[in-house]
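Sequence in, structure out. First:
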Amino acid sequence: MSTSVKKQAIVSPLYVANAAYLEDLYEIYLKDPHSVSIPWRDWFDQIQNNPSEQHAISMPLSYSPVPAIQPTSPRRIATTAETAAKQAAVLQLINAYRFRGHQKANIDPLHFYERPEIPDLDPAFYGLTKEDEDTSFCTGSFIGLDRAPLQEILNVIKQIYCSTIGAEYMHITETAEKRWIQDYLERSRANRVLTTELKHHILERLTAAEGLEHYLHTKYIGQKRFSLEGGDSLIPLLDNLILRAGNKRVEEIVIGMTHRGRLNVLVNILGKLPRDLFMEFEGHHESDNQHSGDVKYHLGFSSDIDTPGGLVHIALAFNPSHLEIIGPVVEGSVRARQQRRGDELGDKVLPVLIHGDSAFAGQGVVMENFNMSQSRGFHTGGTVHIVINNQIGFTTSNPLDTRSSVYCTDVAKMVQAPIFHVNGDDPDAVIFITNLAFDYRMAFKKDVVIDLVCYRRQGHNEADEPAVTQPLMYQKIRVHPTTRYLYAEQLIAQGVIAPEDPDRMLEDYRKILEQGINVAPRIIGNQHSFKVNWKVFLGTVWDQPVETGVSLPRLQDLATGVNQIPEEFKLHSRVSNIWADRHKMATGTLPVDWGFAEILAYATLLDEDYSVRLTGQDSSRGTFFHRHAMIHNQKDGSTYTPLAHLNPKVKFSVIDSLLSEEAVLAFEYGYAAAEPNTLVIWEAQFGDFMNGAQVVIDQFISSGEAKWSRLCGLTLFLPHGYEGQGPEHSSARLERFLQLCAEHNIQVCVVTTPAQIFHVLRRQMLRPYRKPLVVMMPKSLLRHRLSVSSLDDFTSGTFQLIIGEMDDINPDLVGRVILCCGKVYYDLLQARRAQQQHNVAILRLEQLYPFPKQRLEEELKYYGNAKEIIWCQEEPQNQGAWDLLQHRLQGCLHQNQTLYYRGRPSSAAPAVGYFNLHVKQQQTLIAEALGKVEGRG
């Protein structure tokens, strides 16, 4: 062994300058032991397996995978194995507090649930003894304390990681983010003292929070309000968040929250007038008798708040009782607002979501929303999540029943979001964590969670008696002082306020409240410059005529544009054939198929300065290989979207979404509800899958206008049609949408030609009318030889509510009229032609709601000799359109006409699973529809 090697072998790596290196190496080892060299791995293994015997652990002779880092100072920490192990133990202990200090933190105001013993946080676990307390050790990467006695190190790390703040961030794999949070927590420990002015303001906000609840509790006894009491610190939290956001030039904040504390936020943050809230408690409301309205704790609001950094527009979204579903709706609204402002990074529009603890842990849409947070089509630059954690959940629950994880916030770890637990009775800590969370979001554009650990002073609602199922907890709560009282006492003791100030502040607030005027600070109305003018869409009607045809030269010019691709682009052979056909379609030498008709509809809208956003699990290509809005280079995998290059003033987005229906559809609803000048389309992979998003359909799409006067022009593409693919790939549950139809709330269409999809999409944007459009899309018709259109079909006319008989049939000879919708039309048409039945006419209803009564009456009048009117459908009799349409059809019949049903018999499942049985059923219903009627349907 050479002299140089001998020297390296006996010199300890634990110089002062090497401590940070050793800590980094140890962190790497903790993540993956095999990622460090064998000598280091063996040494760390010994420390891990024998923490109390570190004095006996010898340093490896070849201790470093790289040449040892030379000290910047001649002073060494140690040169013996024992003292080296002690130093390593201190670094482990510091790291343990970063990892697990939150489990020992004082975050529960009630001290109700026993905290577990954490052996990792005991110095003895690492072989450190009382004798070591006065020994100085290097602190490695610890910020602001390079070297100190062990006792001082312990006091400081407990102050940072085990006080009223519990920080979870060591699960983050990005070192830069982890170091940033570590620096924020450790460097600022001496600077957490708030100014006297800010402390006054916090007390005022706590007074407002408590004052409103007490006033409502005494004036409107027993009425539901989902009180904030116990979580009062939410009000100063939001107030501070808005001010800090304004100082960082955020211009808009969209808030989604559930019931708990909503009325308090409306009045004390957004500036809803107390007198308006009181009127709602008293049962009074402004109504035009066109809307059903909703309960007061579901309602939204918006206002502008003046901050030192500028105006901030605040919007609180309307929310149903399906608690967490508002999350993706808010994200969609934020994305639309960001794009309207050109805010690609998310610097100007901030989403804030306020959750309940049990809902956050229990509802799957929370996971889906997190999963979307960094995806290309749905990211909004990070969300600030606030959990009002009252530690009980809903009515009678216990944390043992509401989740399987330690914290209700553990689901956020799936995206490595930092989680900051904070004691709701320590408003100063709440403000510090609010600043930290917001600054993290702005720095890294990722989600962050504030777990506001508090309690619920009342029951789930004010008529509930919580002590029935939670006697011990409510014994504590009844004697527990309010947050305002505790904070006021603290400020009195500090000499910040006089003893009489708290009562005076409460009385002053109550006086203003009783006047019914604004009690929220800095409210200046609703003046922001990016408002959307929805007035043009009010009072319009669904059948307002609109010309949706496009001149042939313009259509062909746009067709040429969308058919152009870069010269170096190599298409897949199948796509190349489609492109060749589209060139022929553009010249009129081939009829236009479905996929190209769709592309032309988007192209014409883009050309007229409407943006288009299409989202679904296979939307760029199309589930059925028909759309190809985005093409892929077979050479290098690069992509090209021709429609995105048509008009630089607007945006075309086609997004292959994550495998979710609920969150993605909610996101698209939120987007469309905030942006009326974009054609927003959500496409189901198969229409059957929309039932995974039924909450969105029921609570927002079909009823949002009736409940909240919210307009939305969202379009749903739901592939529907009986092709023998079994019960889960046949039905988009047409009957469910028709059941929801009332008050002209939605449009339900079953289109059968390429020109019809072209016209209905253009109509959706060109009419000054914004209602959801549900389209039962075809599957086999996408390439059906009869389901094609000529260029003339695109250049004139508009969407046809009913398509009359297309063959040359003498109406005087017609004794039977078949009414139908969708793919079954082509089966009927081919069978009639094969049988040469000239006494049967076939009419297609392309729009089922709003029902085109006048048009159908006109068509039936044309066949005055027809006595038999048949409704034919592929779906079972208890599904499809029959049950919900027959009374409307009956009302259109003329004298001596009788209505019959022909289709599959009633069934529990949407379709049979055996192909031969499917074919037999299909042949039977076609034959019965065209054949002799025996008995009433």
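Second:
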Amino acid sequence: MKSFSSASYPYALTRNTVYAKKGMVATSQPLASQAGLEILKKGGNAIDAAIATAACLTVVEPTSNGIGGDAFALVWTKGKLHGLNANGRSPKNISLEKLKEAGMEEIPAHGWIPVTVPGAPSAWAELSDRFGKLSLKEVLQPAITYAREGYPLSPTLARFWNNAYQSYREKLTDEMFRHWFDTFAPNGRAPQVGEIWSSPNHANTLEEIAETKAESFYRGALAEKIAAFSEENGGYLREEDLADHQPEWVEPIKVNYRGYDVWEIPPSGQGIVALEALNILKGFEFPEKESPETYHKQMEAIKLAFADAHQHVTEPAHMRYSTDDLLSESYAEKRRGLITDRALQPEAGEPTSSGTVYLAAADGEGNMVSFIQSNYMGFGSGLVVPGTGIALQNRGHNFSMNPSHVNALAGGKKTYHTIIPGFLSKGGRPIGPFGVMGGFMQPQGHVQVAMNTIDFGLNPQAALDAPRWQWMGEKIIEVEHRFPHHIAQALQAKGHHIRYQLEPNSFGRGQVIWRDPETGVLAGGTESRTDGTVSSW
């Protein structure tokens, strides 16, 4: 990696890298970034700022996350990186047998079947309790204020909101979905750009979470409301499932890529996809970024890593191979040997045994946070708990209906999870948090941003702005409209099926904050494909 003022990119968009010293918050929504900065200026640290920003995003970007979603975090503080997994489990009394008896051949995307225990509120409370300086009540206040007083919609937010509304009004006709429309389409339509939207119920729920340190959500009045709504509508979620939930502190996993440690949350998250791909790629040399050979090898490595993850990754207790097996040097060499000059049809190997929001925050004390939370697939299940504003996630949609698959649906189980925070360090010193939200694009975005930074010396904003690509399955690769045509043609000649995609948000939305190890200066980039911003001082 070169200096933070190093190379930009010839196809760059219009933003510049932001520099600051005392603190920085990067998100996809300006109001949320400013909320985090407000907390920093009140004396909070980066952890407080991350919690405030995350809670605020449930209000100002409900199209991608909510109180009823999951969360993960990587926290650098006092010389160590900590991992938090706040992924909720499936209800204990759900099973493949019950679904098949009901005539289901696949897990639906909406309704109660895919609803798992929400983990986000527990993440806020746990981070605050362990590392925060301010009270959770003070930290959640900006989100509470926006929910109660309202805010005007930004352009990208309004577009996604309307897209969801148009889809939901055709698909979600059952009475149990009425509360979603009451909450998010109170005037019989989606709110428009610049229109004020508020949710007093959302504000009241955030206040109760703040005052009880999330206890009400899992073992109190809010838990009772969630469970009652489930039982009334034939759902499997019960008070017992909520009461048993606990966020887990986990050891982050890493690979060393050209002298830098790239960190992810361990399975059941898919961060291992990015790490396996980088482990494969470090065996090659990449003299230039804009080369068909560079893109070809990146795409092949991602395909191989995804094939392994889709076959082998779920909650660790159910995995046949360990993280160490999948990230071993010998297995990387074996998978690397499959890459030729032609596009391959990826298959899982056998190791030798041995619509999400992302935010980055940093403060002047050296604390840094990589945080991600999601309802999955936009608004999630389409269910809003009456009188609470809680939009429930549909994370269970990722479970397999194949009983022999490691990620097969079972009661009380964590599914393969798409949301992943990333972190970069070197020689035991933090470089900083990074992430690219967006379903199965996320590990692909992590690889592209990491290589843009480490291999090609791009500054944070340029690393995000560079045209992206996404493997879609088999040999299909989608590329952005700014992707160089001559390289697309060369990749096509190698057997890739290249499709240009005009929708920029199909390629994820990322944030980056790097800290200069010598000066402590922060350099931040934010996503130009959405309403993102970097707030700093």
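Remark: The two ends are 25 Å apart (CA to CA).
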